[in-house]
Design goal:
Blueprint lengths: L2 H20 L30 H12 L21 H13 L10 H17 L7 E5 L2 H16 L4 H4 L7 E6 L4 H9 L7 E4 L1 E2 L4 E2 L1 H13 L3 E8 L11 H11 L2 E5 L10 H7 L8 E4 L1 H4 L7 E5 L3 H7 L29 H35 L5 E7 L2 E5 L4 H14 L5 E5 L2 E7 L7 H18 L1
Parallel strand pairs: 2-3, 2-6, 6-7, 7-8
Antiparallel strand pairs: 1-9, 4-5, 8-9, 10-11, 11-13, 12-13
């Protein structure tokens, strides 16, 4: 393909993309295909001779599109969103075109310096103290793994990377039972082990980590010769939106001299709205590491996760490795590959810059405020359905409910709703029972889209009950 052909097909694909988004509401939200159906349509062997783009795009429409679940659909109420607003998509087109590998300052100075400024813009937007710096990661899972590795190295006197963990004792990390599974995986990968991730009970209407249970667990572990290593708190847990009381967690961590990480992957975006901070963000200053995902609720195209660091030195001491071929001569510069696990880095900061400039913080706040308000409204509509129960009340824009019947009935309703195609929901678990999660957060959803869910749920329930 030459560049004239690229320009032609690039225009065709841009037109297709705009039409796709304009008509997205007419499609079923979740793919309606069966396992193996898409793979069976692909040739078993690669072509020996190149094919024309006309044929390739036709097969894309015929084979690929029926197997796509539409994350940008305005009635996507499952999981948390992976949003992609138009300015962010345009930024990604530029990043893809330039195709730079931005591992070091010298490999693309603009990528590094824009990243530093964008992280600081977001620090200001979230009302974090000026001492925080940070880095853009691919996802919250990578940021959490970075924090857990830092906890491990700090607890072993930064000897684990050199010597391994043999003979270092059993390192213990503490979180609530509502913490995300990425924390479990981080403990696996870091060599700490599942059995040394201590999951503690929650309390109160926000399902917060019980401080007394945390104190007792740390004390008992010390008495048993184990090594308390770090605490991971949450603001907006994935299951039901659980939010820990950050002040008591930090007080315990300071007294016990433990490293702290705050997982605010979803709900952190809402903290650009000052009115939510008193309830969900109070005392946030002091956490050693904080992660939130602009790709969830700020419209920044996946993937884009920001990790703030109170002091970057412990993470640099954990992750920095500098062979001769990666050294930068001359002036002191920031090389963000030393802050993260991957060496290779994409220019993720550009889409943050485009988004904030295009919408402004106030435009982004307006969307989040709408989503929270509409979640409250649809929650009341579902509560009013005969026999339905709200299990966990809305925390920001997330709540959970149950239909009449046992756990199997909950799954039947979820499956039937997703087969119906008007909305997309997922199941969860709370208090030993299966629940149905509902979250509002797709970037371009409207109140009409959200409130339509009541009719979809009622209609499908009548058909299957």
């Amino acid at each position: 393909m030459n560049w004239d052909e690229f320009a032609h097909w690039g225009g065709r694909i841009s037109d297709w993309a705009a039409d796709y988004h304009r008509t997205l509401g007419d499609r079923p939200v979740r793919s309606q295909t069966s396992p193996g159906e898409i793979g069976d349509k692909l040739p078993a062997f690669p072509p020996e001779i190149g094919e024309g783009m006309e044929d390739i795009l036709a097969d894309f429409e015929r084979i690929v599109m029926p197997g796509m679940t539409h994350w940008q659909h305005p009635r996507f109420f499952a999981y948390f969103p992976a949003n992609a607003a138009p300015p962010s998509m345009l930024a990604e087109m530029l990043v893809t075109t330039i195709a730079a590998q931005c591992m070091l300052w010298q490999t693309s100075p603009a990528a590094t310096e824009v990243e530093s400024v964008m992280v600081d813009w977001l620090r200001q937007a979230l009302d974090l103290p000026s001492g925080y710096t940070g880095v853009i990661q691919d996802s919250a899972s990578s940021a959490t793994l970075s924090a857990v590795l830092t906890m491990r190295e700090r607890a072993t006197g930064y000897s684990g990377n050199r010597e391994g963990l043999s003979g270092k004792g059993r390192l213990r990390i503490y979180c609530s039972g509502e913490a995300h599974s990425s924390i479990d995986r981080a403990c696996w990968v870091a060599g700490i082990g599942q059995d040394n991730l201590v999951k503690l009970p929650t309390t109160g209407p926000r399902h917060a980590l019980d401080p007394e249970a945390l104190r007792q667990a740390i004390s008992e572990d010390r008495d048993a010769g184990l090594i308390p290593t770090g605490i991971i708190a949450i603001t907006g847990g994935t299951g039901i939106g659980a939010c820990d009381d950050l002040g008591p967690v930090l007080d315990i961590a300071r007294r016990e001299k433990l490293y702290t990480h705050l997982d605010a992957a979803w709900a952190g975006s809402a903290m650009i709205c000052p009115e939510f901070r008193a309830e969900y963000w109070a005392n946030v200053a002091g956490f050693d590491s904080i992660v939130f995902n602009p790709h969830k609720w700020l419209g920044v195209q996946f993937d884009c996760s920001v990790q703030f660091l109170k002091d970057a030195t412990p993470q640099l001491n954990t992750l920095k490795i500098e062979p001769e071929y990666l050294k930068t001569s001359g002036a002191e510069v920031t090389n963000y590959s030393e802050w993260t696990i991957p060496l290779g880095r994409r220019f993720r900061a550009l889409k943050i810059w485009f988004m904030i400039r295009s919408y402004g913080l106030e435009g982004l706040r307006a969307r989040i405020r709408n989503h929270v308000a509409w979640a409250g409204e649809i929650c009341e509509e579902i509560r009013a359905l005969d026999g339905f129960e709200i299990v966990t009340e809305p925390i920001l824009s997330l709540f959970s409910f149950r239909c009449p019947g046992d756990d199997a009935a909950q799954q039947r309703l979820v499956d039937a709703l997703n087969d119906d195609g008007r909305i997309y929901l997922t199941q969860g678990a709370f208090g030993g029972r299966k629940v149905i999660r509902f979250q509002v957060g797709q970037f371009d959803t409207t109140r009409e889209d959200v409130m339509m869910a009541r009719d979809a749920i009622a209609d499908v329930w009548r058909k299957i009950s």
